[in-house]
Specification:
heterodimer; A: mainly alpha; 47% helix; B: mainly beta; four-stranded antiparallel sheet; 3 helices
Chain lengths: 196, 572
């Protein structure tokens, strides 16, 4: 069976990118306190340096909000995130999503392998990743930006989707990852880490 | 519900998650494009008598589907089969929103009210197109909707307009000024509720359902007090006991290949899923004032394709339902597909008319054009199926169950008849339906409730190399026979207008808006609008002159080229 036949597509927003560029507003005191919790792993502006923690700067606001909600409501699990999300209100989650989405993403410092990047790009087209994540993996709404994300983080997520350890997307990514070999995952993580 | 499909793709898409775009929508630049003209003095309050007599009123168009019976049959004949060839544009009104348009404009004494994606409303002069006012709904921080930021129009009573919003609110506007009078939250958008349908207002009650069949909502129809937005009643389309009669066959008698024993065992273990079983109602209900009854059809169960998690008939999904107008209490239902795993739900609005029963006697009926490709004719008092039409689109492999690798079945998940309202011509005894033909494979994937995110439990994919097309079809109400079919190069979404001049108006995704002879389907007139014509047309008269209006804004669901305009036509 073809790779393509497994692909589950989601989400195509036509209005993506319509929002005007804005100067990030200064967070208020309440949000500042919540941001302290995030900063320890993700960095003050969401540009984490430890590659096991995802870069949040420039991520879509909607995706950050929904993931925080899933941690709080038990659909996604992580030993660090579960207790933190439990303390957040819906308003906090919206504010955090808004804040990080407006930060500038910094380079991740990953030295990608050229051959793997090329193979990852080819695989991405084959399984139609851009149908949901858009060209260049810039993301839209509830579909995350993956461009420039840490290699280690992306590799772990794809592996977890495939093994059904992560299921909070209602199985869409499991459907996709089912057709990916370990090499495919490796190549895709190189490819996306190298996009910025 | 519905799924955006790109024609160009070989394997294609389902599922959409067009959400949280509201922030962007509020930043549409230069929205205040024109200098407003003072509101026309001719605008009058709409009385109950005008609303109930709309089927005989050739001057105004005051219900999204023409009248409480949703016939979309315009009683004027000034423009007719003999002269339509000479029809020309009178004006084009450009909105400030370049996105899908599905609006049915409302026209009162020469004042037109139209809506756009993202819940903008415009009041314009229906003769010249000059703008009176422009209202932009202030969208909340969370919106969740699958298939485009659409809106299908306002309802009107007295001097007030009513609109449902993407953030699941009902807003009331002063028709003269566009000022917000009140707004009320219908349901929680964070859980997947949103509004795109035009409400219906009757006897001081605003009736509205909800979108959300792709998000695990619990569907409903609600009635709000037109004065202040206070909730009067709620009819849940998903009862707590949703198992039904364990139907083996669909309403037309075809085996649906259910494993009833396994479903019964699963249902006995857990039936609490009614809270997330879907069942949206997302097109305008019909109202029979004689019997004080509201008629509507209910959408698909959630998740769309993964049925194991929701055993039973999944009442009242994929059904026509009748409820009491004053109390919202159940009268009857008739289910087309029990335990649907193909997203072939019931959407296109119910039409109330008359047709011959099995013994040849003319009786009151309620009809529905299904995504299955049949027009169903029900006795209006009991819901009993009198007949179903010949298939309007190809059907194959019904009802093969979805598999992990995909099972091919026709129709594809978009229809037959999608949300597009049908029209009837009672003189000619015909119903006119805009159909899609999109061959698809159905794929299932196990999926737990994802908390207000898109929840399909699999995917629908179009099939590489298989042609897609549309069918405008006339069906005889008394026999169920197809009288004529016009094949179109692209699937049809938008809806139909029929007139007493024996015309049928229908738009296409490629930009053509056409008039046909209602008797035989002969094309009599066409005009190229430059963007997808995927909205239902309306007709009205000002100063003794008939006009035909239609929005050409393209369509998100079938990715028809976007536009921002309403085109209005008249005789030169």
């Amino acid at each position: 069976m073809s790779m393509r036949s497994f692909v589950v597509f989601a989400a195509l927003a036509l209005v993506a990118g319509r929002a005007a560029a804005q100067t990030p507003p200064a967070p208020d005191a309440a949000l500042q306190a919540k941001l302290q919790l995030c900063a320890a792993c993700h960095g003050p502006t969401g540009n984490s340096t430890d590659p096991q923690y995802p870069i949040l700067a420039g991520q879509t606001a909607r995706y950050i909000y929904l993931e925080l909600k899933d941690y709080k409501e038990g659909r996604r699990h992580d030993p660090s995130m579960d207790p933190i999300a439990a303390t957040l209100s819906p308003a906090d989650m919206l504010a955090l999503g808004d804040f990080f989405s407006k930060q500038k993403q910094a380079p991740n410092g990953f030295k990608a392998d050229g051959a793997k990047v090329a193979a990852g790009a080819k695989k991405s087209d084959e399984v139609l990743c851009p149908m949901c994540h858009l060209g260049g993996f810039v993301g839209q709404n509830e579909i995350p930006r993956v461009a420039g994300q840490h290699y280690a983080y992306v590799k772990k997520q794809l592996t977890d989707f495939k093994a059904r350890r992560r299921t909070n997307d209602a199985g869409n990514m499991t459907s996709v990852a089912n057709t990916l070999s370990d090499d495919d995952i490796e190549n895709l993580a190189h490819y996306t880490a190298n996009l910025n | 519900m519905v799924h955006r499909l790109k024609f160009a793709h070989v394997a294609v898409a389902s599922a959409l998650a067009l959400s949280a775009v509201a922030a962007g929508a509020q930043e549409i630049s230069g929205a205040a494009t024109t200098t407003a003209k003072p509101m026309s003095n001719a605008l009058v309050p709409i009385t109950g008598a005008m609303l109930s007599g709309a089927d005989g009123d050739a001057k105004n168009w005051i219900h999204s589907n023409g009248n409480y019976s949703n016939t979309r049959y315009y009683p004027g004949a000034q423009i007719n089969t003999g002269n339509v060839a000479k029809m020309k544009p009178a004006f084009v009104f450009q909105t400030a929103v370049l996105e899908s348009m599905e609006t049915s404009p409302i026209v009162i004494n020469g004042v037109m009210f139209l809506t756009t994606s993202f819940n903008h409303v415009y009041a314009i002069d229906a003769v010249t197109g000059e703008e009176f006012w422009h209202y932009k709904h202030k969208m909340g921080p969370i919106t969740t909707f699958c298939c485009g930021p659409n809106n299908r129009g306002v309802a009107v009573e007295g001097g007030t307009l009513f609109m449902g919003t993407l953030d699941a609110k009902l807003v009331a506007l002063d028709a003269k000024t566009g000022k917000l009078l009140w707004e009320t939250q219908i349901a929680d958008p964070d859980k997947g509720y949103s509004e795109t349908m035009a409400p219906v207002v009757v006897d001081g009650k605003v009736l509205i359902g909800t979108n959300g069949g792709e998000y695990g909502i619990r569907g409903f129809v609600k009635a709000f007090d037109a004065k202040d937005g206070k909730l009067l009643w709620t009819f849940y389309t998903i009862p707590e006991k949703s198992e039904g009669v364990w139907a083996k066959n669909d309403l037309t008698g075809r085996d649906m290949h259910r494993d009833i024993d396994a479903e019964k065992a699963a249902y006995a273990k857990d039936s609490s899923f009614f809270q997330t079983l879907g069942g949206g109602v997302w097109m305008a209900p019909a109202v029979d004032l004689k019997t004080k009854t509201v008629f509507f059809v209910v959408g698909n169960p959630s998740p769309d394709l993964y049925g194991a998690i929701r055993p039973g008939d999944n009442l009242y999904t994929d059904s026509m339902v009748a409820v009491d107008l004053d109390k919202g209490t159940y009268k009857w239902h008739s289910q087309y597909i029990a335990h649907d795993v193909w997203d072939l739900d019931a959407v296109s609005p119910v039409i109330l008319t008359q047709a011959k029963d099995a013994s040849g006697k003319m009786v009151d009926v309620a009809i529905h054009g299904g995504k299955t490709g049949h027009v169903y004719v029900h006795a209006r008092d009991t819901g009993k199926l009198i007949r179903f039409s010949e298939a309007m689109v190809p059907q194959e492999n019904m009802w093969v169950l979805p598999t992990k690798t995909g099972a091919r079945m026709l129709p594809g998940a978009n229809g037959g008849v999608e949300w597009s309202p049908m029209a009837i011509n009672p003189k000619l005894r015909m119903a006119y339906a805009a159909n899609l033909h999109q061959p698809m494979t159905y794929h299932v994937e196990e999926a737990a409730y994802p908390g207000g995110k898109l929840w399909l439990g699999g995917a629908f994919k179009t099939i590489p190399g298989e042609e897609q097309s549309g069918r405008l079809v006339a069906v005889n109400l008394d026999s169920g026979k197809v009288a004529w079919t016009v094949k179109t190069p692209q699937p049809l979404i938008g809806g139909v207008l029929a007139t007493s001049g024996d015309l049928v108006f229908n738009g296409e995704a490629n930009g053509w808006f056409k008039a046909f002879d209602a008797r035989n389907g002969k094309e009599l007139w066409k005009y190229y609008c430059g963007a997808g014509v995927n909205a239902p047309a309306v007709s009205y008269m000002v100063n003794g002159k008939q006009y035909v209006a239609v929005a050409a804004g393209g369509n998100n669901q079938i990715d028809a080229k976007r536009g921002n305009s309403v085109f209005v036509f008249a005789m030169p």
